[in-house]
Queue: 4 jobs
Job 1
Amino acid sequence: MQDDTEDPSAVRRQKAVNTTDSEWNPIRERASAARMSACGYIAQRALAPEKLPGPSADGIAARLDSIETAVLRLAERGEDDGWTAALRKVELQLLTERAISGEPGGPR
C-alpha cells in the first residue's frame, strides 16, 4: 500500500517501450554491464544531460599537441611566423572552452 505522504509524481509506474529484439538486446546487455534494469538504464540515459556536439577538450588537447610538434619542426627550419600566432589562438580558445565547461585546464 502506498503512503499518502509520498509525492505522487515520484512513484514509479510501469510503462511500455516497443523495440525489436535487435534493438532490445544491446540495451539489455548495456544495462546488465551497468548493473541496472533495462528500464532504469533507458530512463537514466534519456534523462542524462546532453553532451555538446563536437570533440572533447581532451581530443582538442591531443590535436593541439600534434600542432605544437609541427610548429616546433617549422621553427627549426625558420618557417614558424604564422604558425605561432595560430597556435596561441587555439590554446586560448581551448583554455576558454575548458573554463566554461568546468573541465580542468591547467598547463600541459
Job 2
Amino acid sequence: MLAGKNRGVFVEMGRTRLTIAVTAPGAPGRVVEKIADMALESGREKIREFILSNGAAAKARFASGRASVYPPSRFFHRHSADTPVKLREAGYFEEVLSGQFGVDFAANAVSVISAVDGMAFDPARSLAAQRELLFCGAPLAELKSLQEELVQCGLVPESMEIGTLSMLGALVSILRQSGRKGPALLLEMAPASTGLYIVSPDKVDLCRMIPIGLDSMLPALAGELGMKDEKSARGILYSNTFDFTEMGQTLLARLIKEIKASTGFYEVQTGQTIGSVFLHLLPTGLEWVRQCLPRALGMENMRIDLAAWLAASGIRIDPAVEAVAEKHLGVLSLLLDYEGRAES
C-alpha cells in the first residue's frame, strides 16, 4: 500500500547519504516542513522509519515522492547543432551520441534537453531555440539498482532523475534570480571522478567528467605521513578526524591541475572569468576541501541567498525547520517545477 497524497516527499540519494525534504499538505513542494540528512550506514530501516513516519499515510508500507540519484557512470554531454534542420533528421541524436560520445543506446537511459531552459527536446517547439543541447543519462542497470535501493528505504519514486540535472537547473535559476552576469563552476565530488560543469545565467556552457577524484589524494597523503600503503591513508582521509587544510593544496594537486585545464580553456575561449564554485557531494569528513580547493582555483565558494531564491521560486521554509544550508540545495532543487522537466 502506498501513502496518500498528504505530504510531498523529496529525496536526494548520494553515494553515502540521503537528504530528505517533506512538504506540507496542500500545494505540493511549496512549504517545507522538515529537512533531514541521514547516512546510508545508519541503516535502511532507520531511513525507512523516518520517511514513513513523516511522509506516509497511517499504516502505509511505502511513501511516494520525487527522487534524485547519482549513478556512478552518469554522463552529460554538451552539443550545439550546426543547423536547426539537423534536429529533424531521423537518427541524428543516436548518431551524435554513439559517434561522438560513445554512448550505447541499448544499455543506457538517455534524455535530450535544452541547455538553456532544461526542457526536454520537443520537435514541435522552435528548433532554432533548441540548438544548444544537453545529452544526459546513465546505464539502465545502475538506475534500476538505485531505484531498488530507494524502495528498500521506503520510497516508491513517482519520478527519479539524475541529481546533476536538478542541480544545474537550480544554479542557472540562482544566477538569473540574483542578477549575476558571470559564469559559475559546479564540481560533483566522488572518489574516482569529478563532474565538472560550467553554468552561466543563460545556459549550461560546459560538461566534463574528470577521471580523477578524491582518491587522487591518497598517494600524496601516504607520502606526507610516511605510510607504506594507500589503504591506511584512505582510513585517515575519510575518518572525519583530521583537518588537512594546511597540506590541502599539495594533496589536491592532481585534481587542481585537471580542473584548471578545463576552466582555463573555457575562460580563454569565452573571455569570461569564473569567479565562484559550488562543491557538491563532498563527504562529511572532507569539509576542509571546501576551503582549500576554491582558493587554489582562484575562486570563491558560491554564496547563495537561499531565502531569496526560494521565495522567488515560490518555496517557503517553515520557521520550525532549523539549519537549512547550502548543502541542502540538491534536495531543494527537486521542489522546482517547470513544464517539460526531464526525468529518468
Job 3
Amino acid sequence: MSRRRATQLREQPGTPPRGAEVIDAQFKVVRGKGQSRVAVAGKWLFAFVCAAAIGFLIPPALVVLQEIAAMVRGD
C-alpha cells in the first residue's frame, strides 16, 4: 500500500480576488494510524532480548534446583 503524498500549502501575496473563499482554520500535524516503524522495531527487539534472557536463565535455574534436591535427599 503506497503512502499518499502530503499536499503542500502555499500562500500567495496580495489580496484574494472577489468572491474567493478564504480558509482560516487552526490545524495540527497528527501521526498516521498505528505506531512508527521505530517503535514497532523497538518492541520486537525488547521481546527478543527478554526471550533470550529467559532462555539463558532456565538451564542454570534447573541446575540449582537439582543441587538443592540432592542436598535434601542427602546424596
Job 4
Amino acid sequence: MSKLSEALNNLKDTAADFSSLTVTTYTGNLSIMFQNSQTVADGDTPSLSNIDLDRLFTYAIGNANVTADPESKITLKAMNVHKIDGDAVLYRDEQISDDIEKAHNQAVTAGRETREGILNLIKKIVS
C-alpha cells in the first residue's frame, strides 16, 4: 500500500474526530480519592500526575473506581459543540462569570485554530 493510500485510510479513520469540536468548561471543587489497588491504563498507580482530565471527569461524574470525594462539586459553566456542517449547540450557565466565559471562548478559538492547522497540514500532504 502506498504512503498516500495509507494516509487517506488514516484520515478516513479519524474523520469522526474532525466532525465536531466540543469545548466544555467546569468550575468547582474537585477532590479525588484514589484506591491503592486501582491502576490506570498504563499500569501505574493513579495520581494527579498520570491521570488524564478526560478520565478524571468521567470518574468524578460517573462515580467509578477513582472517585470524586463526596465533598467535591463540579458545575458545568459552558459548552460549545460545533458540527462540521455548521450546526452548533451552545450552553452557558445563567451565572457564568465574565472571566470564565472569556477563558472558555479562548479555548474554543484555540480548538478551531488547532483543527484548522491540522487540516491544512493534511491538505499539504495529500496534494
